[in-house]
Amino acid sequence: MHTQDLDTPAIVVDLDRLERNIAAMSGRVRAAGARLRPHTKTHKTPEVARLQLRHGAAGLTVAKLGEAEVLADAGFDDLLIANELIGASKLRRLARLARRVRVRSCVDSLVGARMLSDVAEAEGLRFAVLLDINTGLNRGGVEPEQAVALGEAIGALPGIDLVGVFSYAGAARGVADAAARRNWALREAGTAVAVARELQARGFGVAEVSVAGTGSAVYAAAVPGVTEVRPGTYVFNDMNYSRMGIGTVAECALRIRSRVISRPAPDRAVIDAGSKVLTTDKRAGDGDDPGYGFIEALPGTRITALWEEHGVLRLDEDGRQLAIGDVVEIIPNHVCPTINLADSWYGVRAGVVEREFAVAARGKTR
Amino acid sequence: MHTQDLDTPAIVVDLDRLERNIAAMSGRVRAAGARLRPHTKTHKTPEVARLQLRHGAAGLTVAKLGEAEVLADAGFDDLLIANELIGASKLRRLARLARRVRVRSCVDSLVGARMLSDVAEAEGLRFAVLLDINTGLNRGGVEPEQAVALGEAIGALPGIDLVGVFSYAGAARGVADAAARRNWALREAGTAVAVARELQARGFGVAEVSVAGTGSAVYAAAVPGVTEVRPGTYVFNDMNYSRMGIGTVAECALRIRSRVISRPAPDRAVIDAGSKVLTTDKRAGDGDDPGYGFIEALPGTRITALWEEHGVLRLDEDGRQLAIGDVVEIIPNHVCPTINLADSWYGVRAGVVEREFAVAARGKTR
């Protein structure tokens, strides 16, 4: 099938670009001296995870336990849940999962660690955890000054194996200046390594220092003591990253094909992709309003408004040629939640649909 | 099962409130003298549609053909697709659907109408359409001044039955002042009725005048000549509408139960619901930043930041009592895309889960 025969809206992924992106990040991280544990929340697709492993990834990262279960079912056996797991139901599920595959999760509190330890003891196993440190994102994570003391307390719990230190200095994502972003990445990595070394000096086997995302992975991977990095978005790239110079539009592998369904005014077109396809995500504070995605073939045309199932384009001179029935291809601002809205996407090469991929972990928020 | 035993994040709906909301809108629209054709994009759940019909709805509205197919499969036989259908694949599907149920869609161009007419002729049937008029939203729809001429041209096509006039003056949604909103609603309804009467005078059987949403339905229903209104959000209500005085917080039937997974600072908590649960939808231009939803039990606590699978709360004095493991219930800003992220939701009464409902039309963007 040719892409032009796909009904719209549809997500298409250029498989050549996808493979190049995966190979490039693998090569850079390897050259920098760390392992790659890519974050699969960007694609939620087991086949892409398989490609990442084939290109040398040492394991996979997920955001939620439900995503881990999907990947375990698909045969993946080394998973990091980059989140705190809290609540009896989740810990029972974690115990079941821990019997099937190597799984690790994060802790940033003694309260949370005790919950894990209690369930582990009751289940007759031990949970492997990473100590989550706040290195500037101000989301979760223990403050660096309190990290060693918390690590000691957690490491002493009977049901817990404290195997590493974890951080995500995602604030570095928002820094368009590469030198400043590099400094952020180095600071994150340095803080995590310092905590790990102090815990090692106290006799804990914290072998893992896991840091960084797409914007900082290559910098952090070169820091001595960092063992793994967890970029996610690099597989598809998106406009938020391209506008910051993290990746380029030429590296954007994923587009949304959307059809013009109305041409109500010379400078206005309506397309069949709205916020239930593109999401309303828009990076704030960029100065010039970027709109809700980017049409590479019509760079002067903006997606100025989204309704749930309608997108409104403000057309420049070139855009005015758009007629009802024409298809535009949109690079989304933020690719991760966009994929999470779709049941499937189409892998294409040279305009031909090679196959459809199910977003197997879509909606696994628990 | 009690709601406190649900794993998080989970969507819970107070079924008593849901039924009251449905009954109230039905009663008001009936009293005003119009029929109710509720927009099902808010709930995407056949059981709620059934409840709407049981309370007197005259048929159902959907945003996409795929939603119509789900409802037809569930046994509903009178559907309005509130959108333009463009493209060969969609029109073949529409033809199949038109053989099973009474289905209507919208047109706002001769080009689009000809596509419909051609397929109808080839399939040996006629498509019933409503003429979509722009009454101020500036999305799709023909301008009122050109509507009669377009209606005549469309009505003359061999495969088309022009059965009515359609408008959504959604701009009225954004008007917090009730008197101004009423004026908008009356203007929309008046414009649509005027176009319908002109077409009727020219011999077209445009019996239907279909207008308005939750913010304007009751006003528009009272306008002579309006035959049906299409509110959607009223079933659940949400914070965007509550902040505008369209509905109240007490009418908000849907909440997201989310668990505190981290308490990294005295004034900060992290919950397990992020943008992949709540969406980043936030009504702009409200002055005071409302955050990403509202915790009724902690009105001074704000959801200040969302990551994909994390929400960050800035806690006021009351909020500081929140501990790891505690559950908060969040009323979303915009309920429609929130439901579209979930595979299911839980219907509850007095704290007890009555049953789980599948979001059967979730993700049906085509």
Unreliable segments of chain A (pLDDT under 50, ≥5 consecutive)? none
* Largest beta-sheet details of chain A: 9 strands, mixed
What is the arithmetic mean of pLDDT of chain A? 96
Q: What CATH architecture label of the largest domain in chain A applies?
A: Alpha-Beta Barrel
Helix fraction bin of chain A:
25-40%
Number of distinct helices of chain A: 11
Q: How many structural domains in the coordinates of chain A?
A: 2
Helices and strands of chain A, in order, run as EHEHEHEHEHEHEHEHEHEEHEEEEHEE
Quaternary organization: homodimer
Broad shape of chain A: elongated
Range of strand content of chain A? 15-25%
Radius of gyration of chain A: 22 Å
CATH topology of the largest domain in chain A: TIM Barrel
Category by helix and strand content of chain A? alpha/beta
Name the features.
homodimer, 366 residues, alpha/beta, TIM Barrel, Lyase, Ornithine Decarboxylase, Chain A, domain 1, 9-stranded mixed beta sheet, 8-stranded parallel beta sheet, 11 helices
Layout: helices, strands, pairs:
The structure is a homodimer of 366-residue chains.
Chain A (H helix, E strand, L loop, with lengths): L9 E5 H18 L2 E2 L9 H9 L5 E3 L2 H9 L4 E7 L3 H13 L1 E6 L2 H14 L3 E7 L10 H12 L4 E8 L10 H24 L6 E4 L5 H5 L6 E2 L9 H5 L10 E12 L2 E4 L3 H4 L15 E2 L6 E5 L4 E4 L12 E5 L3 H5 L4 E6 L2 E7 L8
Parallel strand pairs in A: 1-16, 2-9, 3-4, 4-5, 5-6, 6-7, 7-8, 8-9
Antiparallel strand pairs in A: 1-10, 10-11, 10-15, 11-14, 12-15, 13-14, 16-17
